[in-house]
């Protein structure tokens, strides 16, 4: 079954304690991205990756890091979490590469990670 | 910078009604547009994907249209059911930026 898997689903942590949210996809997609969803602000892109070792900032990258060492994995790293990073996070993948015109760039989303930083 | 808006923000209808959700975007140079459904506290489920060269897509009781020149898309839901209650998001695949989301329309279908 095609899917994007995020872990953990729920996380409560304290300010300043480094954490990683994992994301894995089994569709061999080149493109992966992270979003955060906040009430009244909708979904905003944090970082995206066009392929292995290629990452770029989205709209709200401050306080986050990512890495793309393997095609299937795209972890989101919070080096020093702060309360304003309390949010619902989504990972997504698609076959869009930005280098050509593909017939289908449907995006698949993970189930979300609800993070609370106290 | 691409901006996506959705009208209405919330909608409540009795079961069985047909309804239309609207999505507008400011930059017509999009690659495709996708409609998603999100249930409370859950992830996003893709409903329909419309390529920029297409004008509409249909899946069951759902029909999505796209008018690139005017920067608009509509999602039509026929014979609504209580199980359709959710937030509906449209997102445009914007070259170089990718998937700019609208704020969503929260739909309640009353039995």
Characteristic terms for this protein:
heterodimer; A: 118 residues; 7-stranded mixed β-sheet; 11 strands; B: 111 residues; mainly beta; 6-stranded mixed β-sheet; 5-stranded antiparallel β-sheet; 59% strand
Assign an overall shape of chain A.
globular
Largest protein-protein interface: A-B, 26 and 25 residues
The overall pLDDT average of chain A reads 90
Count of helices of chain B?
A: 0
Counting helices, strands and paired strands, the structural category of chain A is mainly beta
Taking the alpha carbons of the first and last residues of chain A, their distance comes to 36 Å
Strand proportion of chain A, as a percent range, falls in over 45%
Compute the number of strand runs of chain B. Answer: 11
- Beta-strand content bin of chain B: over 45%
Ends of chain B: how far apart? 41 Å
The strand count of chain A comes to 11
Helix content percent band of chain B: under 10%
Explain what this protein looks like in three dimensions.
- The complex is a heterodimer of chains A (118) and B (111).
- With 118 residues, chain A is mainly beta.
- Chain A contains no helices and eleven strands.
- In chain A, strand 4 and strand 5 (42-51) form a beta hairpin.
- The mean pLDDT of chain A is 90.
- With 111 residues, chain B is mainly β.
- The mean pLDDT of chain B is 91.
- Classes of the chains: A mainly beta (118), B mainly beta (111).
Kindly summarize this structure in a few lines.
The complex is a heterodimer of chains A (118) and B (111). With 118 residues, chain A is an all-beta fold.
Q: Which secondary structure elements does this structure contain, and how are they paired or packed?
A:
The complex is a heterodimer of chains A (118) and B (111).
Chain A: E1 4-7, E2 10-13, E3 19-25, E4 31-38, E5 42-51, E6 54-57, E7 65-66, E8 76-78, E9 87-94, E10 108-109, E11 113-117
Parallel strand pairs in A: 2-11
Antiparallel strand pairs in A: 1-3, 3-8, 4-5, 4-9, 5-6, 7-8, 9-10, 9-11
Chain B: E1 4-7, E2 10-14, E3 19-25, E4 30-38, E5 44-51, E6 56-59, E7 62-67, E8 72-77, E9 86-94, E10 100-101, E11 105-110
Parallel strand pairs in B: 2-11
Antiparallel strand pairs in B: 1-3, 3-8, 4-5, 4-9, 6-7, 7-8, 9-10, 9-11
């Amino acid at each position: 079954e095609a899917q994007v898997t995020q872990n953990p689903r729920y996380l409560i942590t304290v300010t300043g304690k480094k954490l990683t949210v994992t994301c894995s996809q089994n569709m061999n997609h080149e493109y992966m991205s992270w979003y955060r969803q906040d009430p009244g602000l909708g979904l905003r892109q944090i970082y995206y990756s066009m392929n292995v070792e290629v990452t770029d900032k989205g709209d709200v990258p401050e306080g986050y890091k990512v890495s793309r060492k393997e095609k299937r994995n795209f972890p989101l790293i919070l080096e020093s979490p702060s309360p304003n990073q309390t949010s619902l996070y989504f990972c997504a993948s698609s076959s869009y590469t930005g280098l050509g015109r593909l017939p289908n760039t449907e995006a698949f989303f993970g189930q979300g990670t609800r993070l609370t930083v106290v | 910078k691409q901006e996506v808006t959705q009208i209405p923000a919330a909608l409540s209808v009795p079961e069985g009604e047909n309804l239309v959700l609207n999505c507008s975007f400011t930059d017509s140079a999009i690659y495709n547009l996708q409609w998603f459904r999100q249930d409370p506290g859950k992830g996003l489920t893709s409903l329909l994907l419309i390529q920029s060269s297409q004008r509409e897509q249909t899946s069951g009781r759902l029909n999505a249209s796209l008018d690139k020149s005017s920067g608009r898309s509509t999602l039509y839901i026929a014979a609504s059911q209580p199980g359709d209650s959710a937030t509906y998001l449209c997102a445009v695949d914007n070259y170089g930026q990718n998937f700019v989301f609208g704020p969503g329309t929260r739909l309640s279908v009353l039995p």
